[in-house]
Amino acid sequence: MLTRAEALSRVEDSLRERVKNRNPHIVDYLESSLANPNISPGSIRTYLGAILGFDDFLRGSSSHGIELTTGDEIVSYFQDLQSKKDDQGKSVQLSYARLSSIWCALNSFFNFLVERKIRPDNPVKVIKKPSQAKDKPKRYFFTPDELKLLMATSKKQIDEQTAPRKWAGAIRNHAILTLLCYAGMRIQAVLNIDLTDVDWESRTIQIAEKRDHQYTYYMTKDVYQSLKNWADVRHILAREWIDTPALFLGQTGKRLPSQTFALWLQKLEVCLVSGKHLAPHKLRASFATNMLETTKDIHMVKEMMHHSSIATTQLYIPTHRDADRRAAEIMEDLLGAEDDDTCKNNVS
Predict the structure, then answer these.
(1) Can you spell out the DSSP letters for 20-33?
(2) Whole-number Å distance between alpha carbons of 126 and 72
(3) 261, 173 in Cβ contact below 8 A?
(4) Residues facing 115 on adjacent strands
(5) In sequence order, which residues have a C-beta less than 8 Å from that of residue 32 and are 6 or more positions away?
(6) pLDDT tens digits for range 166-180
(7) Is the dihedral of CA 25, 26, 32, 38 positive or negative?
(8) pTM
(9) Beta carbons of 234 and 171 less than 8 angstroms apart
């Protein structure tokens, strides 16, 4: 039977074997963890597995080392984790505990690099630690005043930019935000728009939605102007050697990734005082809820949202915490409570 020391030595040897030919910073992190008596071998094994998993992902999508990881790559990795499929093509949902463990492992590793001045910041901080309590869908939406504030803040950012490419990027972001707020489209549908999908003369856009569904969107004056402003400066981000049909381009000259826009929204979130999390799908939800509150026509909103079932549209019906009180007040108005004198007369 192995002694405790021998068993521990074997575990350490197996962990060192796993990092052979890996990035030297991962090796240094492992050795530092093994030297820390407060960290159990089991925790080290779990953390190392998560770090190596991210390193494998990075190797397949980037040419740089793990020490140069960007916030965009962290976001992309967690999105990838939540869209895994099994052999039958079914989505595999990782538990919140597993996602939280991976987040903690990467957070620990990049803090290690920051402490050793290998990099200036921790890229994991761009996303919040996954938590079942925090990440349950929240039925909140942005009011028209909040949406106006978002668009005004976005427009202000355009005037604050001095570098041509950042200025063009700010105009692009404002155009996308305006389209999301005014049309309630899914972010992927917006980013999939090609140049040939836009007819400036008729002011229409051909939109490709989920399940190959297509429809024509008629631009309002504000949407048209914001998109036209972007179209006029799109060439600033275009690359001569990259021929892309995408309307919305990123800094690389290719189609703008959804996570890049999501990260920009997170930064825009600071202008809100409500504490609500700002994300593309929340803008779509806000569009639906505001339309339902204004029109009271769920069938029309269903068509505007391009839902296949009205049950999906019903998810966006606003709920009120004071529903019981409001119901009581409505019934009191309907039934018309009698005054005390009338009651006394009836009794006598």
Answers:
(1) TTS-HHHHHHHHHH
(2) 8
(3) yes
(4) none
(5) 112
(6) 999 999 999 999 999
(7) positive
(8) 0.56
(9) no
